[in-house]
Amino acid sequence: MPNAALHAEDDLPASRTLLEQCVAEDPDTVVNRACILYKEGKYEEARAGFTDAMAAGGYQPLLAYNIALCHYATKQYGGALKTLNGACLAEPLC
């Protein structure tokens, strides 16, 4: 969780340093790395990371939302809508 606070504050170098101490294959590490990539404007790489995390840990609406944000940032609006629709179907309160 400390890493999430650091990248929320845009302290990306400190976030990367913390990530280097984590198990690379851990789903939380993958998500944190993807969050950093997103903040750096590397949307395709971030989307791949969020997708990998979802493949490893199962469907999670928050990860679907992050994937949709990556689609939107790269002007792939159809992909963003499709992903959000899937998240809303999985979470009826959406």
Helix content: over 70%
Largest sheet: none
Instruction: Classify the secondary structure makeup into a structural class.
Output: mainly alpha
In DSSP terms (H or I, runs of 4 or more residues), the helix count works out at 6
Question: What this model shows, in words?
Answer:
By secondary structure, the protein is an all-alpha fold. The protein has one domain (2-90): Tetratricopeptide repeat domain (Serine Threonine Protein Phosphatase 5, Tetratricopeptide repeat), CATH 1.25.40. 76% of the residues lie in helices and 0% in strands. It has helices at residues 2-8, 12-20, 27-39, 43-57, 61-73, 77-90. Helix 2 runs antiparallel to helix 3 (27-39). The model has no long low-confidence stretch (mean pLDDT 83).
Keywords:
94 residues; 6 helices
Summarize the structure in short.
The protein has 94 residues and is mainly α.
What is the fold's blueprint, element by element?
Blueprint: H1 2-8, H2 12-20, H3 27-39, H4 43-57, H5 61-73, H6 77-90
